[in-house]
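Researcher: Next sequence.
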Amino acid sequence: MSFDASFDQARLDQLAQQHLGNASITGRILFFGDPEENRLDLATWQLDTDQDYETLKGSDFKLQMMELLDTLLIYRAQHNQPNSGQGVVYANNEGLTIKWLPKEQVEAMRNSESELQSR
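Model: Next structure:
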């Protein structure tokens, strides 16, 4: 089976339609896979407001997002895609989008947010 470049976005669109509907959340989810198993190891949720967290509370969105990220990590690794072990999901009024990035870049994004929160 060949790699389907639209697989990631199609699954994110389905998840957004199923759980977000008209809800408007903004922020990002930084995620990292285990390099040996190509499975989800860590995800850091950085939403813009407390209301965004409240919107997701009580829904299965977070659980299903984690399951989807695990599936996407496995899929990309099976097809030897670049940066298959980490990335960021952006949430905004237009839906969800994913970017697969080098590990150092995702770590820098996580560290810059940690520095902002400690001030």
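Model: Residues 7-117 form one domain. Residues 61-78 form the longest helix (18 residues).
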